Amino acid sequence: FKTFQHYFIQINLSSLSLSTMTTVEEVKSIVHHYDHLREWHDLARGNGNLGDGYYSFVGREPVNLDIGFPEACRRMTQYLGSLGQLDTRSIVLDMGCGEGTPALTMAKQFGCKVVGVDVVANNIASAKKFQAEESSRLNVHFHEANFFNLPAQIKYEMFTHVWAQVSFFHNHAHLRKCVDVAASMLKSGGTFILVDYYGPRHPVFTRDTTKKAPDMEEYIQTVKDAGFDIIIQEDASRHFLAGTTCLRKIAGEEKNQVEMNFYDGRISSIKEKLIGMVIIIAQKK
User: Fold this and answer.
1) pTM (2 decimals)?
2) Count of alpha carbons within 13 Å of 157, Cβ hemisphere only?
3) By the 8 A CB rule, do 162 and 169 touch?
4) H-type helices in 66-207, by residue range?
5) Model confidence pLDDT, tens digit, residues 48-71
6) For residue range 140-166, what is the model confidence (pLDDT) as tens digits?
7) Cα–Cα distance between 62 and 239 in angstroms, integer?
8) Which one, of 70, 40, 50, 55, lies nearest residue 260 by Cα?
9) Fewer CB within 10 Å, N side or C side of the chain?
């Protein structure tokens, strides 16, 4: 059983505003979530992969779990980008970009410009490190920022797409505000690309039992109420289950009892339909 280091929490409090929807304590909680679990995430998910994967199925059974979690995550990014019709003309705001792997993947796959923002300083540091290891031709820019309080150079750029790949679940209490920010950053007719967890139980319930999550219908209605037409809605819970099963296997191989227990609880909750994952492609009216 591995003991993982508690990372020092880096946070620029001057970038936050108490008038925004997230409090300083909420942001500290998000930072702690990633910094405390960073070594485990890198080991289990592969460097830079903080989302979930996309798998192939025959009937109800996944048939390519052996592709590995990093490849499954790349497949999810490519699938979402195809649904959202990304191309070389696209300018994408990645809200909650994590360690940058989805942004770099979509830039390579579709040739688009990507601006990634994340409130976690260490996530942005990792994203810039991974970017430096990639081709300099990629048009990707990373910024440490709270997406409820974006810096001017981002706020006044008109984006063709807004991307949120498993980043809103930290802010489910402020979900409508998250979607409103996405709408405000898009050109008229722009595309919102989202994959996220839904409830009623919160997906990290074994670490935080106080949080709840919107169910799938509530999630879709929130997007509609914010001024979007739903183009595609897909229950991606089977992919969530397949990926969680992979992570549970890795936790077992590492004899990490804490993560084994966590993933056992998550697998049970997905099967009981207490949590799931939804893909939404929507167009701003």
Assistant:
1) 0.85
2) 18
3) no
4) 69-83, 101-110, 121-132, 152-155, 175-184
5) 666 789 999 999 899 888 998 889
6) 999 999 988 899 989 889 899 999 999
7) 8
8) 40
9) N
